[in-house]
Specification:
By secondary structure, the chain is mainly α. It has two domains: 199 residues, Growth Hormone, Chain: A (Up-down Bundle), CATH 1.20.1250; 209 residues, Up-down Bundle (Growth Hormone, Chain: A), CATH 1.20.1250.20. The chain is built from 18 helices and three strands. Strands 1-3-2 form a three-stranded antiparallel sheet. Helix 12 runs parallel beside helix 14 and helix 16 runs antiparallel to helix 17. It catalyses: ethanolamine(in) = ethanolamine(out); choline(out) = choline(in); heme b(in) = heme b(out). Its main location: membrane. It is found in: Cell membrane; Endoplasmic reticulum membrane; Mitochondrion membrane. Belongs to the major facilitator superfamily. Feline leukemia virus subgroup C receptor (TC 2.A.1.28.1) family.
């Protein structure tokens, strides 16, 4: 079916009901085909828009396989000392099991975002779940002390899958969801990634206790890897059968306009150049990288920081990590709903960034007090704002860069985050080794302060919101002067 559909001849999905329909004739599509007179009256054309119930299945499925992938990012680092003993490697080597996710992303993000623009969401989803599934089974075969290279290969396969995952939440939100729910949908997409990290903090310390017998330890590790492989395989099958490219009708006028751009008029390299000349977006790339890079460093090194002050508390280190991410998930959803209600992108982003800085300062100051309950509270406050910032950055980027591809803008943000994440993790790790955890956390506070200051300099140019507002204004004007086509109505018998 073509991207544009005649009002008089709709094609409806089986999963639609009367409550699904959100058909609004909208004017101003200059690219409307001349052979569709039923969509035109006078000088203005209109396109119907619709919300499909399937959109919730799509975002839920994406969140699920994103969860499975992000779980594996931190499953080595949170029991760093146990894997060091099992594979007879040092702490820095185990840190690379997390940092490989960041390193792999950097060279592959540009070809992957090009593939996303050319092939669409479904191809990207299938490839992501395939590589994630393969990686989990490679790790199942690596549970021997002399097979560290094999487990590294499995982790590399999962990290490659992540390249196909991180940039998708804002793209799925724009392609499937209405203008009043895109930020909430993006938050749900990010929610799955955060929940996976939370489970990655909680489950490995429980499944893999710190025992001295190598055979028993191998058994526990094997159980964890088999469970992960089973879940990854199940999700791969679900994606093949149920993940859909896009709805037949666009959810918003902004998305309809984006669809109307002929493929031959789009250049991926030209899009990159336009984005890098967009100074508000360039500032956002830097500030997003600073904030999320700090989060990556704290997550990767959390086991080392907690064990340094509270020896033998591997399980509680995982619980503290869980607290950080669960609080962040709540923050993400609240921020997403707030953005949909208020559209105050810059103000909300700046406020959350500033509170991330405050949370990092308080966490650094209280880590060494000797009271784990205090660390739980301060870590939770830090996570609420620092992790809650993730969907804010995605959605602010889409607003600043519309009508450029959401996958490309998200890819640049994530690339910045991976670069800063590697730098901050290595530097903070070395600082902790030589000067202690307090100095390492102060190091991150400095960069969060810089990021807060730069966020205040970002000009709030909400292009996507302006496009939707213009479409509504044009529609009201056409209704007033009688030049708009008759409203299209989908009767119940047509479902």
């Amino acid at each position: 079916m073509s991207d544009k559909q005649s009002v008089g001849d709709p094609v409806l999905n089986d999963d639609q009901t009367k409550t699904d329909v959100d058909v609004k004739p909208e004017a101003g599509d200059a690219a409307q085909r001349a052979d569709e007179p039923s969509l035109r009256r006078g000088h203005e054309a209109q396109q119907p828009t619709r919300l499909y119930k399937r959109r919730w299945l799509i975002v839920l499925l994406f969140s699920s396989y994103s969860l499975c992938n992000s779980f594996q990012w931190i499953q080595y680092g949170i029991i760093n000392n146990i894997f060091m003993k099992f594979y007879s490697v040092d702490a820095f080597t185990i840190d690379w099991m997390s940092m490989i996710y960041m390193l792999t992303y950097i060279p592959f993000i540009f070809p992957v975002t090009w593939l996303l623009d050319k092939k669409g969401l479904r191809v990207i989803a299938v490839v992501a779940t395939a590589f994630n599934c393969v990686g989990t089974w490679i790790k199942v075969a690596s549970v021997k002390p002399n097979l560290f290279a094999v487990t590294l290969l499995g982790q590399f396969s999962c990290s490659f899958a992540q390249v196909f995952i991180l940039g998708m939440p804002s793209r799925i939100a724009s392609v499937w969801f209405g203008s009043g729910e895109v930020s909430t949908a993006c938050s749900i997409g990010v929610f799955g990634n955060q929940l996976g990290i939370a489970i990655g903090f909680l489950v490995p310390p429980i499944l893999v206790p710190n025992v001295d017998d190598m055979d028993e330890l191998a058994h526990h590790i094997s159980i964890m890897f088999y469970i992960t492989a089973g879940v990854a395989t199940f999700l791969f099958i679900l994606v093949i059968f149920f993940f859909q490219e896009r709805p037949k009708l666009p959810p918003t006028q902004a998305q309809a306009t984006a669809r109307s751009i002929p493929p031959e008029h789009y250049s991926y390299l030209a899009s990159i150049r336009r984005l890098l000349r967009n100074w508000p977006f360039v500032l956002l790339i830097i500030t997003y990288g600073l904030n999320v890079g700090c989060f990556y460093a704290v997550s990767t090194l959390l086991n080392r920081m907690i064990i340094d002050h509270y020896p033998g508390e591997e399980v509680n280190a995982g619980r503290i990590g869980l607290t950080i991410v669960i609080a962040g998930m709540v923050g993400s959803l609240i921020c997403g709903i707030w953005l949909d209600k208020t559209k105050t992108y810059k103000q909300t982003t700046l406020a959350v960034y500033f509170m991330s800085l405050v949370g990092m300062i308080v966490y650094a100051a209280t880590l060494s007090l000797g009271h784990l309950w205090v660390v739980f509270i301060t870590a939770g406050a830090l996570g609420f704002f620092m992790t809650g910032y993730l969907p804010l950055g995605f959605e602010f980027a889409v607003e600043l860069t519309y009508p450029e591809s959401e996958g490309t803008s998200s890819g640049l943000l994530n690339c910045s985050a991976q670069v800063f994440g590697i730098i901050f993790t290595i530097c903070q790790g070395k600082i902790i080794d030589h000067f202690g955890t307090l100095k390492g956390n102060i190091f991150l506070c400095v960069f969060l302060f810089i990021g807060t200051a730069l966020t205040g300099l970002i000009k709030s140019d909400l292009r996507r919101q302006n496009a939707n507002m213009l479409a509504k204004t044009t529609e009201r004007s056409n209704c007033h002067d009688g030049s708009m086509a008759e409203p299209s109505i989908f009767n119940e018998e047509q479902f």
